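Record Quinol monooxygenase, 107 aa.
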Amino acid sequence: MHFTVVKFTVRPERDAAWLSLVEDITQATRAEPGNVLIEWFKSVDDPHQYVVVEGYAGLEAAEAHTNSEHLKTAFAELPDMLTSTPEVISAQTEEGGWSPMPGAVPR
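=>
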């Protein structure tokens, strides 16, 4: 799986527009044939910082996502919403998606 994590810090006055954009991106990305997962998280330290975790069947699927029309459309809006350049971690992993975390099983 090709695994990507991206951290975004959003201008406070753009939070509502950001959440709308994220919803559109998420739905379109989940419909991509090579998408394994896409999940968004909000920082507990900064109420305007968001992290997306994405997994793709392989590098080709990740590249298709990067070149998708919905992502190009979103990237045209991003500069007006962000306070800083997003930070990214991208790697190939042997995992195929989420797996159970040992030692943290509910009672």
